[in-house]
Recover the amino acids of this structure.
């Protein structure tokens, strides 16, 4: 091998080694994966291992984060990524994009630093001369930030410049020595500025009100932070008429506050009890998750602790009041076994009812890894603990101690398996599964399953197997949660045969016999037969009781069909060769079925308990085009004997010219001669656009007490899904005896859609019938929207309904008109630019007339609004002139609107304070 070839091989091996190191490099903290790169190079510099990744478009994944650059230096010794030149880092967790020069990513501490960095997310853009990002916090020196950068206007409506910035993603931004810039002009200096980032849980709240029961009430939520990894909210409550009057609490979430602790969550509130009670209700949710590295362990020890208590809303006698639930779990995996510790307990009032969840005080599980040696495998698991749980109703000694019982339990589970080939085409498998539970009360339960199976195969698709089992279940648990269903002693022996005696024919036998049951309790032997030789397709099965020598059940399904029988397959002649004689040309068919377009099928059966099953016979004819089909079906009840159903289906399509003759007709009809019910439908489609449909369900001989024979409907219109569609329907209840509709309805629907416009109209009208004398509109709805250019659009929905009460002809009509809502919008602004303000008029109102007289008459109540939309902020004003209600609100990115002022006839209100 040449020296150049050896060098190329060394580079290839180094690249493959680097790729493997990158994929596994995050075993200690984070995983780095290469998505795209041109070259990889492994270097040793000053005792440090470097992987150089370069290319036109280098892309890496750091867990779920995305790194893009043209050159990346991965220092595996220091566990850092250096992004040379212009690069970007996308944080999946916080939704942030960091762009800058020479960014440095420290994988161990999950920290990013760089110079002249631009950070942006869905709501905020920050520029910093020096930036450091750590989990839960981002710091920038010499920073400029704004929420208007994405609006596309220059200059920004407002922005801030600060000496130092600290951003808590999703929570708030804190700026020190900040200047407020309006259109990039400094107008105000602020020593400290705090800007909430629209996380609802992190917004300060102050509510002052007065209640008829509690009197004066004050609710305050004050967010705070501790260091860079802990966020919390202090909650204060005051109720004038409660005893005591003051309550307090805190919510807290902390990320990696201590070594071996990943997350801490706390939600605590001690609130005064309702008027008439003394003391405080405590609501508590406390959770801790973490990992502890252990020597020799395959994975770190994972643990979690959850403490909960909920008193609010519970009565003084509720047994759940004052109850604290505790759950702790820890799990660790070593090369030879896995161990787990679970602790579930409750503190407070003693339980007086059955516990739905067992208390584990504690429970220890040791699960050794499965052992395998050739054909032998073994798996063992041991669980021990002390439990308090609901007593087993089937255990007298347990129920004597009350609805719950406390005792210890040891559970041992093992599974043994052995598989071997005793001779050619044979498999022998033996298994033993055992679960034993032993209790401190002296009770025990046992579940044993011993199975042996021998399978012999021959001639490819033929198999014979014999299986023997020994099943044993015994004992009574003192606990209800692990109680066994009952005592079991069984030794079933199963025989299974599956064979192909001749081509296209399959035959099978299955039989199961329990050695511990009497002959009267044994099951049936099942024989199955399958034939798939054109034109015949047959499936049949029979169940025979060998002890009683009776045929218990038979089912069959047979079909005669061969759509390819009319096709001739020609095999050309083959001349003689030195080793084979000459062969003449041959012509063959798949079968001798005389009618390729005809299929006949029949299904039925027999049961010893009920006698013959109904016989169903179907004949189907398929046209030259498979979409053309006609089938007839007859169902005969052999036991009665009588025909219970006669029906046919059809589907026809004209295909000479898909445009001019695109007619498709389909339908079905079914008659039950016994009940006289005739049901069916017919559908005709023209050119794939228009459709006529009729359906009916009629009793040919209706009862004298009925007013109609069933329903009959007709409709015509376009197919659904069209841009412009319409449908007209007529029908309803129909009486064959009197020869007419009893209470028919005529209805119609119209939908039109254009670019920026939509219209939908529906109407329902009663028409004269045998039992309906009036012609009147009972329902009409109009809804639509239209936009004219980019400045003006209207939308609305109007619904009219009519109902009647009383007896004809003296019944009284009630008419209702609902406008919900009608809206007119006008955009204001410079031509060619997005509107900066919108004028709106909205009308939402109901009108009611009884016997033509309007009820509760009054003027129209339109509401007028003005919205100034600047993308990064908005001002909304609303005026209801009739009801004399006026509102003003301001909105920031991510907010629907924060009220500033509201004036009503009862008084004025300002934010945070509500007047009684």
């Amino acid at each position: 091998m040449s020296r150049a070839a050896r060098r190329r091989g060394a580079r290839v091996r180094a690249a493959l080694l680097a790729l493997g190191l990158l994929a596994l490099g995050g075993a200690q903290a984070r995983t780095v994966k290469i998505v795209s790169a041109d070259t990889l190079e492994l270097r040793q510099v000053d005792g440090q291992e470097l992987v150089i990744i370069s290319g036109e478009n280098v892309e890496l994944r750091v867990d779920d984060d995305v790194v893009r650059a043209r050159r990346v230096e991965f220092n595996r010794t220091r566990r850092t990524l250096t992004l040379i030149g212009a690069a970007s880092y996308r944080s999946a967790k916080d939704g942030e994009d960091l762009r800058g020069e020479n960014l440095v990513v420290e994988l161990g501490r999950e920290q990013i630093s760089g110079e002249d960095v631009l950070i942006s997310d869905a709501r905020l853009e920050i520029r910093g001369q020096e930036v450091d990002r750590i989990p839960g916090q981002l710091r920038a020196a010499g920073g400029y930030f704004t929420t208007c950068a994405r609006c596309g206007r220059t200059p920004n409506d407002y922005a801030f410049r600060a000496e130092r910035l600290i951003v808590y993603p999703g929570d708030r931004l804190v700026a020190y020595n900040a200047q407020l810039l309006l259109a990039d002009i400094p107008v105000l200096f602020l020593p400290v500025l705090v800007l909430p980032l629209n996380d609802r849980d992190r917004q300060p709240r102050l509510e002052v009100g007065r209640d008829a029961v509690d009197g004066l009430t004050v609710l305050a939520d004050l967010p705070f932070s501790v260091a860079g990894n802990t966020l919390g909210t202090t909650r204060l409550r005051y109720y004038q008429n409660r005893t005591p009057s003051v309550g307090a609490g805190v919510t807290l979430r902390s990320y990696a506050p201590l070594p071996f602790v990943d997350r801490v969550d706390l939600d605590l509130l001690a609130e005064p009890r309702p008027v008439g009670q003394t003391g405080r209700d405590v609501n508590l949710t406390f959770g801790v998750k973490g990992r502890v590295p252990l020597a020799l362990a395959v994975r770190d020890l994972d643990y979690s602790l959850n403490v909960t208590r909920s008193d609010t809303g519970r009565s003084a006698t509720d047994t759940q009041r004052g109850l604290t639930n505790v759950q702790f779990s820890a799990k660790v995996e070593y090369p030879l076994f896995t161990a787990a510790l679970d602790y579930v307990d409750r503190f407070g009032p003693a339980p007086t009812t059955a516990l739905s969840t067992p208390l584990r005080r504690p429970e220890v599980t040791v699960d050794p890894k499965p052992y395998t040696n050739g054909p032998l495998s073994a798996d063992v698991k041991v669980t021990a603990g002390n439990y308090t749980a609901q007593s087993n109703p089937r255990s007298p000694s347990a129920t004597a101690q009350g609805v719950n019982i406390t005792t210890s339990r040891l559970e041992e589970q093992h599974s043994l398996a052995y598989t071997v080939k005793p001779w050619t085409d044979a498999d022998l498998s033996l298994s033993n599964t055992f679960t034993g539970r032993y209790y401190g009360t002296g009770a025990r339960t046992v579940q044993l399953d011993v199975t042996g199976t021998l399978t012999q195969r021959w001639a490819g698709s033929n198999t014979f197997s014999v299986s023997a089992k020994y099943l044993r279940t015994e004992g009574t648990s003192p606990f209800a949660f692990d109680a066994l269903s009952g005592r079991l002693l069984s030794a079933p022996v199963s025989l299974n045969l599956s064979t192909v005696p001749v081509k296209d024919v399959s035959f099978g036998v299955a039989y199961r016999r329990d050695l511990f049951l009497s002959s009267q309790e044994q099951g049936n032997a099942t024989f199955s037969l399958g034939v798939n030789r054109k034109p015949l397709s047959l499936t049949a099965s029979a169940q025979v009781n060998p002890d009683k020598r009776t045929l218990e059940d038979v089912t069959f399904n047979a079909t005669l069909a061969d759509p390819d029988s009319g096709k001739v397959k020609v095999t050309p002649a083959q001349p003689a060769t030195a080793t084979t004689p000459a062969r003449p040309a041959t012509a063959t068919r798949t079968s001798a079925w005389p009618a390729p377009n005809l299929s006949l099928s029949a299904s039925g059966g027999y049961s010893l308990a009920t006698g013959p099953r109904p016989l169903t016979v179907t004949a189907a004819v398929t046209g030259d085009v498979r979409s053309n089909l006609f089938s007839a079906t007859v169902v005969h009840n052999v036991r009665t004997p009588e025909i219970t159903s006669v029906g046919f289906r059809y589907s026809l399509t004209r295909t000479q010219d898909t445009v001019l003759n695109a007619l498709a007709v389909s339908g079905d009809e079914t008659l039950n001669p016994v009940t006289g019910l005739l049901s069916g439908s017919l559908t005709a489609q023209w050119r794939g656009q228009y459709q006529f449909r009729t359906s009916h369900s009629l009793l040919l001989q209706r009862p004298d007490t009925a007013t109609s024979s069933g329903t009959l409907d007709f409709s015509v219109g376009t197919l659904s899904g069209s841009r412009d569609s319409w449908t007209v329907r007529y029908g309803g209840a129909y009486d064959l005896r009197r020869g007419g509709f009893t209470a028919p309805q005529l209805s119609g629907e119209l939908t039109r859609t254009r670019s920026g416009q939509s219209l939908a109209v529906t109407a329902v009208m009663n028409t004269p019938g045998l039992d309906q004398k009036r012609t009147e509109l009972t329902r009409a709805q109009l809804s639509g929207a239209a936009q004219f250019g980019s400045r003006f659009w209207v939308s609305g929905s109007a619904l009219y309904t009519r109902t009647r009460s009383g007896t004809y002809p003296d019944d009284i009509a009630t008419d209702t008109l609902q406008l919900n809502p009608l809206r007119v919008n006008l955009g204001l602004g410079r031509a060619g630019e997005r509107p900066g303000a919108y004028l709106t008029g909205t009308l939402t109102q109901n009108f009611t007339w009884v016997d033509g007289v309007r009820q509760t008459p009054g003027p129209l109540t339109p509401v007028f609004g003005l919205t100034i939309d600047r993308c990064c902020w908005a001002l909304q004003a609303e005026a209801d002139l009739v009801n004399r209600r006026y509102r003003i609100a301001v909105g920031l990115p991510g907010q629907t609107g924060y009220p500033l002022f509201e004036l009503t006839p009862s008084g004025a209100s300002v934010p945070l304070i509500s007047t009684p």
